[in-house]
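User: ok so my PI wants both of these folded by tonight, can you help

Assistant: No problem, let's get them done. Here's the first:
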Amino acid sequence: MFLAGVFLSSAQQLEDTIENWRAKFSSLSDFVYRSKNANWIGIRKVSKLHGDSIFVVNTKDQGQTVYRIMNSQLTFLNEVGVLGKKGQQVVFLNLITGNTFNFDNIIDVYPLQQQNRFGLLSNDHSLRFYDSTGKQLFEIANVGNLAATDSKNTIYLNRQYDSKSEIIETTGSQQKVLYKTENKIRKISLIETGKHLLVLETAQNNDQDRLVLLEAGKSGKTVLQLDISKNAVAKLTPIQNGDSFLISTCVEGQPQDNTLVDIWYGNDPYVNEHFKKPTHQRFWLWHPKRNKLQNIPVPENFEVGSINNDRYFLTYLPRRGHNFITSEPELNAAQIYDLKLNSYRDIGNVKLARQIGKEWPELLNHSIYTSSDGRWFVASHDGLRWSLYRPDGNKVTTIEKEGLEQPVFSSNSENIYFESVDGLWTFNIGLKKLTALDIGRGKITKIKNYTLKIDDYTAISFLPTEKLLAEIKDRDENVISYQLLKRGKIYQVIPSTKNRIHKLIYDPAMTSFSTLEENFNLPPTLYAYAKPNEKKLLFDGSIKDNGVKKIKQEMYKYSAAGKNLSGILYYPANFDPAKKYPMIVRIYDMQRHLSNSYLSPNKSLPDGSQLRTLLERGYFVFLPDTTVGDKGPGLSALECVHKALDAALKNSFIDKEKIGLFGQSYGGYKTDFIATHSDRFAAYISGAGISDIINDFYSYTHGFNKPLYFIYNTVYQMNTTPANDKARFLANNPILSVERVNAPILLWTSNKDRTVPPTQTMEFYIGLRRYKKDVVALFYQDGNHSFPDGTPEQVDLSKKVLDWWDYFLKGKKDIAWISKQMRKDAL
């Protein structure tokens, strides 16, 4: 259906026609399930017309075997079966025979991988076990609502029996009582190593609760008992694969909703977040083999973090010096505590390093990264360079090169690999030598197969084997490839492609690879790479979208704000070179990465736009890069967009008198600013944007639970304050030039937006109204910062967005809700 040629008698018919047209198109989801050896891939096919379903694809026979089951969350049972759960419905598919078995009233699913059987906990509180043929093998009645499993051989359950709480161990063919107590059991969990079961008990006649550790999979004997604070939570962090454990307990804070008055202190690092401040903290080191428990004494309110060593620990006062200037509290005045000598060594303030490939400074999630054997850790004191430490806090060296990002220790802890925007680097610890590897030079390079075990400010980051799988992305050309480093040699596993690779799926040995790929004119499709240059279709979901293959895309290069930038131009569907067409410009930040994003009719950007629908309705759509230069975010965006227009308007088919600009959130701010400084647009749409950056700088957001001034060091890249650079803040503030807006503007937001306060939209609306500008503002009662596809807010906004463009760029003046503003006699 060519929507631009459809004439309808009412707005409702228009909406219904668009929705019916969109409903005809299906797509594959970018969420992929994988069996243990990657012999099978599960993927969801999304269809508004026929309903969603799951397809399970055999990668070993090149997709010749494909099964379809109900839309559900998948759990593979090795390579022989797969369980799908949706609500209380469960389906089991035998991958060998293709037989399916359906079960109802199921609360939870427990696979036992090593036995090729599974347990189903039903709402009659019975746990029943089945083999891969669907035959019931065993049943346990009167099961409680707590369970833990290693997913291999054993499930641990709680049960009330004879006024006592029991923990039962079962393998699916037999059961035994592992533990009994007079107390109520409030939590059971299997420790990460799988060797111990953690039990938390609520003592009935005591002001303390109890932590119990049981030996799992053997005798089930009790190996540790600890009295802990009432209602305390507990965490066991394995050190060097469970040779020892850091045990920490605390009572978590609770939000206080019914207080007479909230008191906010200017020196309070927990302002409005006291529920994040724990109390009654205790720390111990436990050695299972020696069954030795050592108290770790630290000052009150201090935290203890693992650096994967049983003698040395990170200690710090949380949020010391935190004034919300950074998005997350930094690790200040950190120390290494020596448990043997009961001594401390200062390592100073630790900064978060920059995360790879972001246009604005987005930071890594952890401050300290340790090796798998606990012999080394790295930290940054300036956010730019890494320093190498021994576990006792003695600094070995500082790696002077800036721009090294995610650190990953080699499997033998002799080298550290670093991701970067300039290829892959390795640091030889023994030689203290940094070397650029011949992988991804000049390109964004990431490591795909490393293990990351997190513990608040620290993380163990290492390669589990000697192999390293690297993703290499050319950001300028939007090209991606994958290489494997093995025994010093580099092997190409996925050759360079302009397709977007949503998922890379591979077996544990990294000998076979599959991908989920798409492009602007290619719906998501599964491919197999038996060899680097042997790409074979696995599964395309029988997606029918012939129209997308006809869409034409052009890239335009330009320079602005000191950078080389690109813009993506899409031609209207059924393009006629004898005509001129209106153009809609969508802005946010860098957008070149969207050049290979599938133009699904059902893909709705957060700003309510549907790019594919706009193309079908006869518009050019232009997605230019914008960036931040020395002038600031608003003036830089203005320069970028004007330079982008200069480049795109060399295309004579664009009607330069009929161009619209829109953006949401950060793009909404830029749209507001450009609307106050440009005369090149016929209409604007701005969604949930910041219109007053000084007001916003000094505002508080309940979405992030913090003052908003932190984003001016990240997204907005001002890197200063209004007090220190009033001129630049004033020059980049849209509201101060609101009287200069010279084209109609549609504003929208949600009154429940917890990211950008809706008062920002209201302020811009009030300014426009005061100066008698043509403005319509939409204040939705529900939704949040953006509206998910299919919600009433999204459906309504999408319709109004199309109306707005049709009215101002195509001259369709029979749209009543817009005419109410534009017709001067309408009042």
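One down. Here's the second:
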Amino acid sequence: MVRSAALRAWPRRWGLVAALLLSVAAGPAGANSAPAPVGPGRIAVVGTHPTGIVGVLARHGLPRDILLDYQLRDPDVLAGYDLLIVAGISPGILTALPAMEQLLQRGGSLLVDCSVTQAVALRLTADRRAPGLARLLACTTRPVSAFRPARDANPPLPGIERGTTFPAPKESLVPRLVAPEQTTILAEYFTPQARRARQAARFPNVPPPDGVAAAILLVRHGPGKVILCGPAIALSTALQGRDYDRLVLAMLHLLSDGRAVPQLEPEGPRLRRKQSGRSLQAQGKAPAEDAAPDDEAEANTPPPVPERPPGPGKRGPIPRGFTLVEEEPATEFNLSGQLGGKQVELLLNHWNAANTLQVTLGAEGVRVVHTTAGKARGLARVKTPVRPGTPFVVKVRHARLLVIAGTVVAAARLEGVSRGAIAVRGAVTAPRYQPVEPALFSDDFMRTSDEDGGWETHGGTWKTAPVQNPNLGANPFSYRVEAGAAPAVALMGYPYWDEYRCSVAARPESEGGAVGLGLYARDEANMLFFRARVRPAAAPLAEGFSLVRLVNGKLQTVCHSAGGLLPGQWYRLEVKAEGPWIGAFVDGEKVLAARDTTFTGGRIALRVEQGAARFDDVLVEPAAAPRPSGHRFVGRVPAFAGVADVDSWAGPATAWEASPDTAGLFWRRGLFLGDVGLRFAVPPLPDGGEAMLLLDGDCRSLAAGYALHLRRSGGGLALELRHQGRAIGRASVPASEGVSLSLRRAGTRVLGLVEDRVVLKAPYAGGGGGRVALRAVGFRPRLSRVALWAANVRDYTFDTAPVDWWVGSGEWDVTNRWSCTPDWSWFGGYSPEVAAIWHKWPLRGDVVLDLYAAPKMIGDGPRRREQFADFNAVLCGDGSNIDSGYAFLVGEQGRGARILRRGQVVAENPRFRFFGQGHNRWANIRVEKQGAILRLTVEGQVVLQWADPVPLAAGYAGIWTRNNGIILPRITLYYAAAGAELLSVRR
């Protein structure tokens, strides 16, 4: 053990707070664990394999700016940080050693994972007399070994017991002991006694203390501190999912004098190489925290249909002359039959003679009468005669009634209807009672072709189409069909399904033919269906869209409009039936509507004529069910995400950015420009504890925007709503074991809620910064208990078909990223020219396009190409020309960045480079327009910014590459307003 007495007197960058902080750090997490009174400091990460380290910092709520290699050469950039983590040494980092020296001379700290590429290793060992950091960074290799805290380390690794053993990393290096008097050995490799002799002979220049080799060194370097980590923990966490969290936190604790301490309860699955949540679930190992929060599960479950109450007075018998059909019917049911003579009387919900619901139909039309307490009240009257032999159906729902008899339709609202029997009198043939439930069904075809999933197919060839390994891919299955001369039809559902809407993602795969979506199907030859013809050219077909009645195999067009679908594009097709009204939609836009009563209920159908198509994401739900709006973010990892995904774009914690200056404060990534709501299931607060939610902030000051504070005050909880730092409302809340706290912007109001009940409210003043934040004082929050809903946001991880995106050029589909490891697959595109996609909706005002990207490996064998280059974006474009609007060119042929306005260069940064080692990394790219300001950000670092004197107002957002392949695991759009001119319908 070598240690200098001077080590105890090191200058500390955070010396004023060190005495308060040394006792706080990597101890057991829990509600009573108080974070540091000041923020954790500014931490940056760089290197060949930073992803795993970034994941550690995110999981534990610590700041984590990612720097690009070229930025390290700028001392002014490094001057903004207290601590720099080098997660593997690259050639670019070697050129930045002078700037890193300046960081240390200012009292900063450096944590270096000493793993290096072979070229870097040769440069470091070429001259052992190299000055400064270069001399420190030269390491020797050793066989892969486990390691443990050094027995006599002073200071020791905080929070780690002396007997702890860390697993062997992917690589093991021995850092050079350059200045023994200024060095503390924090950890050491160890091997069995039999191997120690061989180890010493092989590495004679590394004197192992007590028969072991140094693994981690703490070195005083001028006013600063350096930790040299020989075990390749960055590489092992990034690629293999090894758990070195406690070790990383302990080293940060030492380098920051106790300031950088965990601020979150770590959550999410801990994945290893070639694992995903889906693969763990298949093995019965899915982590508990990957389940949906209770409130989300409830939100996705339709409310139960209320039971009808008993009627007033004693229940009586059915009147004389009536025939009982059902003594105790369900709340919702259908009663069907055929009129056999002049008139039929139907008693529905008959409690007694003074309380009953009666429907009469016949030569005098249809009449609906509700009798309550002996007083009859007409609810509906249609005078059109119903002729003998006409089939009819009466649909009774909780709050409405619908009678369909041939082409005659009568509707009524129901209020105060009691329980009761069903009975009939008169000329009725085969009366049939059918209890019904809301039509609810979904299918993502996540199965092999050996399973039909309950679909009944007729004609054509139907099969599920997998993409690579289904456990490791986004949306790995779809339902593919090839139809010949006869139509191909697949049926699903129940004959009693009615009053529903059905949607499906559809992609035509051949020129010509038609794709159809049917409803109220009795069989493959009887139904209504929406037919969308496939057009080979851009011009719409005169009857491209039509609503078709199919009776006993014979077709009759009900209505039609111009349009059609293009092959190779994904669309969202929908049909909707409400009473006699039938509507058809493409990507949410109504293209057809008609009244038709040929069929009154039935199954759904997928249909293809003379061609091939793929279907996905079938959804059936009640026609009256509210449509989802906006987007809801919950703390859950996509099922197909792997270890590098969880540590970058997919992890719940990576979406929240810890403040370096204020303890327990987290800003949510993104710009929320419309209605928004933040909900936090707050645990029991300790004395002095506080939870805060903030909307419309500016990411700089807690005084900006609207903040809702919940504090523990004596035996109760104090609630306060603030605007711009000034209290505008106060309330008291009884103390409990935990409380649900919500803050919402809803139109012109701001609402503070406790247990989903409005407690405080204020008018919304507008003009805020659009940022959202969460703060916890006195406890470490769990992000799985935080839900965020936002109106003007579209978030895509492509676990469903990409129906909101229009292919402008190139080939786009779910595809593998690496030809060397083809199991993993995401949404991506490729072209030797330009591969471009466009969001189908135009966006107005402020807009942010945030995406994660990586290159698709092109080719196979020794001629494979994988290049971080030409990851470009467009805002305010025209939906077809990549030079329209604002074009952001990022890494053209691997270098530089530019902003173009309608084809003219207005700003450029020739110094920009993507990271050199990107084989297992994702690049985060954000382009934004806020007012007149255009900004390009890569990995959180502003690369370009320009003010347009005449800003463009609106247009389409796009992503493209040139002579390359691009993989896109996540795209998020934030916008002020969306337009209505869909790319998919206008063309």
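The radius of gyration is 33 Å. The chain has five domains: 5-255, 323-435, 441-622, 664-780, 794-986. Good luck tonight!
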